[in-house]
């Protein structure tokens, strides 16, 4: 099975994400996605909107949260916790490089998030840039070379897979993904190198381009 994750980051307001969702659902329903898992990760505030739109369109992609809190519940103003999102998403991205930078996440915090995701049966998509050790049930590990994220310059597929091989010795997962300036023209090279899928940022903002990436997996 090949996997494509659309990380919509914080790019859309409510009107814009409704337009995106309508266009994506229409094109997705007309696409061939056999033996492929497509996962859409909107901002937390739009999880319910995306799920409702998906159900109305009767399409079968998965939904992910972009992050969860390290806390289960309590006096943590502004936090989005694992039990808050389980009604809307089955997957969650943890450890994305942007979250590590903005929130200064360390390995201990990321492990706490993995533990909570496991507790609430959320499938973990764990992002790393270098070999790090984590425990728990992990659906996919995504290798994200920092220099390739949102720069338009993807890393070399072969050397990226070599790094991922080192990561895989420390983190057991069902799938291993590449993330960083993925597009429809280079995705096949990453699959050929050994990756089972991709985590897509900027190019997922265009439904047609993202589904072209899916088609080329």
Q: How many discrete domains?
A: 1
How many beta-strand segments?
8
Strand content: 15-25%
Question: What ranges have pLDDT less than 50 throughout 5 or more consecutive residues?
Answer: none
Q: Which percent bin holds the helix content? A: 25-40%
Kindly name the structural category. Answer: alpha/beta
Terminus-to-terminus distance: 10 Å
- CA-based gyration radius: 16 Å
Biggest sheet strand line-up: 1-2-3-4-5-6-7-8
3D shape:
globular
- Could you say what the CATH topology is called? TIM Barrel
- Helix count, DSSP H or I runs of 4 or more residues: 8
**Average pLDDT across residues?**
96
Q: N-to-C SSE series?
A: EHEHEHEHHEEHEHEH
CATH architecture: Alpha-Beta Barrel
Largest sheet: 8 strands, parallel, barrel
Catalytic activity: D-glyceraldehyde 3-phosphate = dihydroxyacetone phosphate
Keywords: Cytoplasm, Gluconeogenesis, Glycolysis, Isomerase
Protein name: Triosephosphate isomerase
Pfam family, one: TIM
Topology:
Layout: E1 2-7, H1 14-29, E2 36-41, H2 47-57, E3 62-65, H3 82-85, E4 91-94, H4 97-103, H5 107-119, E5 123-128, E6 140-143, H6 157-168, E7 175-179, H7 187-193, E8 197-200, H8 207-215
Parallel strand pairs: 1-2, 1-8, 2-3, 3-4, 4-5, 5-6, 6-7, 7-8
Helix pairs in contact: 1-2, 6-7
């Amino acid at each position: 099975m090949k996997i494509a994750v659309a990380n919509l980051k914080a790019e859309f307001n409510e009107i814009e994400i409704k337009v995106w969702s309508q266009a994506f659902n229409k094109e997705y329903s007309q696409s061939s996605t056999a033996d492929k898992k497509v996962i859409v990760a909107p901002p937390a505030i739009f999880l319910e909107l995306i799920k409702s739109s998906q159900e109305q369109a009767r399409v079968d992609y998965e939904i992910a949260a972009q992050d969860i809190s390290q806390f289960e519940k309590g006096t943590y103003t502004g936090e989005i916790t694992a039990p808050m999102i389980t009604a809307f998403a089955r997957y969650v991205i943890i450890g994305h490089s942007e979250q590590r930078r903005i929130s200064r996440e360390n390995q201990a915090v990321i492990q706490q998030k993995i533990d909570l995701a496991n507790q609430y049966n959320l499938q973990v998509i764990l992002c790393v840039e270098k070999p790090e050790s984590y425990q728990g049930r992990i659906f996919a590990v995504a290798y994200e070379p920092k220099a390739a994220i949102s720069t338009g310059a993807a890393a070399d597929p072969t050397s990226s897979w070599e790094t991922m091989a080192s990561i895989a010795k420390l983190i057991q997962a069902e799938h291993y993904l590449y993330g960083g300036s993925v597009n429809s023209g280079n995705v096949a090279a990453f699959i050929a190198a050994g990756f089972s899928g991709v985590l897509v940022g900027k190019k997922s903002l265009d439904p047609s381009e993202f589904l072209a990436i899916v088609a080329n997996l």
